[in-house]
Amino acid sequence: GLPVDEEYVGELLVELGEIADECGLKSLADEVEHERLPALARGRITLVVLGEFNHGKSTVVNALLGADVLPVGITPTTAVITHLVYNDTPTVTVKPPQGGGESYTIPYEGMEQAVKDSGAEGEEPEFVEIGYPNEVLGHSLVLVDTPGVNDISRQKVEITYGYLPRADVILYVLDATQVLKKSEVTFIRDRLLRANRDRIIFVLNKIDALSEEDIAEVEQYARERLESLIGPVELFAFSGRKALEQQRRGGDLPAEFINFRQYLMGFLQEQRAYIILDSALA
Questions:
Q1: Which of 59, 132, 260, 280 could be cross-linked to 240 through a Cys-Cys bond (beta carbons 3.0 to 4.6 Å apart)?
Q2: Alpha carbon 184 to chain centroid, angstroms
Q3: For residues 145 and 70, is the Cβ–Cβ distance under 8 A?
């Protein structure tokens, strides 16, 4: 379909409000001003990144952003839910656990240590929000990086599950060196399928650890196994680490990564169009 322009929908709503006002339709004018326009402004789209611990989720996210925004090398005990949103300057806001007081900001440079400290003390934040000047995060995108779905903390796993119904798009990261373990198959079948299967995109990460022949074999196996579980799937095989390294040094990006990024950005734009129209017309 045609792309939906948020600004254009906003202008139409303003016009509708003015016409309603002139015609004495006060309730419609009020609804446009106090409900429809704010809903349009809020129209955030949520991309949730899932996968087992150590499958390279943060590296895939950094590759997508083309910058080292998320800390990598966080252990399962210190991993927390991380929200990434657009901001003109790098900022980090820590949201304490429910009932744990007000949110507070910390220097962006100290984020990794702060996350480790908060995890070690047992009073984990509900989430950490990173604001960063990155074009991928523009247009009200909220990118949620989650701890591994096989994390040692049951509480963290339940929190991650809680994000699934809210996700507009789900990015599930698989590891090419240990693809679709029993625990993953269980999670995909029992949890992920409750989300809308049309909104799930799979990444087969870490293919740089395999030979060309093995990559083709593993990708075919992953595709067939996933299709037997949930039907036709979108699956992209690349190395997040290599894609990020190439961007750091300005080299050519792997073709499959370029395809992935184009597909994902188009998919997000499509979902955003639905959200905008929903906000305007609901």
A1: 59
A2: 19
A3: yes
Q: Is 172 exposed, middle or buried (0-12, 13-18, 19+ CB in 10 A)?
A: buried
Read off the tokens for 245: 């390294």
Query: Measuring CA to CA, how many Å separate 211 from each of 59, 207, 222, 282?
Result: 21, 8, 16, 51
Residues in the chain with pLDDT values less than 70: 1-10, 34-43, 72-79, 99-100, 113-123, 149-159, 194-197, 275-282
CA-based torsion, 210, 212, 213, 217: positive or negative: positive
The answer to whether the CB of 69 falls within 8 A of the CB of 247 is: no
Q: Which residues of 24-52 are buried (b: 16+ CB within 10 A; e: fewer)?
A: eeeebbeebeeebbebbeebebbbbbbbb
Contact status, residue 257 vs residue 63, Cβ threshold 8 Å: yes
CA angle 205, 46, 150 (to 5 degrees): 45
pTM over 0.85: no
Cα 197 to chain centroid, rounded: 16
70's tokens = 């998320």
Q: List, for residues 141-182, the tens digit of each pLDDT value.
A: 889 988 776 655 666 666 677 777 778 889 999 999 998 888
Average pLDDT of the chain to the nearest whole number: 80
- Helix (H), strand (E) at residue 22: helix 6-22
Q: Tell me whether strands 104-106 and 234-237 are parallel, antiparallel or unpaired.
A: unpaired
Residue 37's contacts (CB-CB under 8 Å, 6 or more residues apart) are 10, 13, 14, 17
pLDDT (tens digit, 9 = 90+) per residue, 219-247?
Answer: 999 999 999 988 889 999 999 999 999 98
Instruction: In whole angstroms, give the CA distance from residue 34 to residue 36.
Output: 6
